[in-house]
Specification:
155 residues; CBS-domain; 3-stranded antiparallel sheet; 26% helix; elongated
């Protein structure tokens, strides 16, 4: 499975010349722990996280943001994304197509992916849904034939 299949595409971002209060309001309003930072041309220049806002001093987002960005492409395998998030101890990675920010993929996106996988015990069909499917689209088996697959992506 690829990053493009799981990433959040409606990315909330903040401009580097914004005040840290504006970034804090975005994090609080959308209940997220980090946000991509873009310059006036719309290019990704950093990430601003809760940690950055509470541990660094400055007036503008550019003063406190993290500049060393680890990113992935839409075609990156989820196994590689999970490896990056776990081994680099980061919570999110921007998804870039060339110089353009096309999505963001977080730990919670990977957790949702795990929660959404159901497998029909009759025919093996995999269905992605937060709720248990009522019928298997391949063999027609009833809801009781489904099991939630609880293994992490790429395993």
């Amino acid at each position: 499975m690829k990053a493009r299949e799981v990433m959040t595409t409606d990315v909330i971002s903040v401009r580097e010349d914004s005040g840290i209060e504006e970034a804090a309001r975005l994090l609080a309003r959308y209940r997220i722990s980090g946000v991509p930072v873009v310059n006036s041309a719309g290019s990704l220049v950093g990430l601003a996280t809760e940690y950055d806002l509470i541990s660094k001093t400055g007036q503008r987002v550019a003063d406190v943001m993290t500049r060393g960005i680890i990113s992935v492409s839409p075609d990156t395998e989820l196994e590689e994304v999970a490896h990056l998030l776990a081994n680099r101890r980061i919570r999110r990675v921007p998804v870039m197509e060339g110089d353009r920010l096309v999505g963001i993929l977080s730990r919670s996106d990977l957790v949702k992916q795990i929660a959404m996988r159901w497998v029909c015990n009759v025919c093996g069909e995999q269905v992605r849904s937060l709720e248990q499917p009522q019928r298997c689209p391949r063999c027609g088996a009833a809801a009781g034939a489904f099991a939630n697959v609880a293994e992490p992506p790429g395993m």
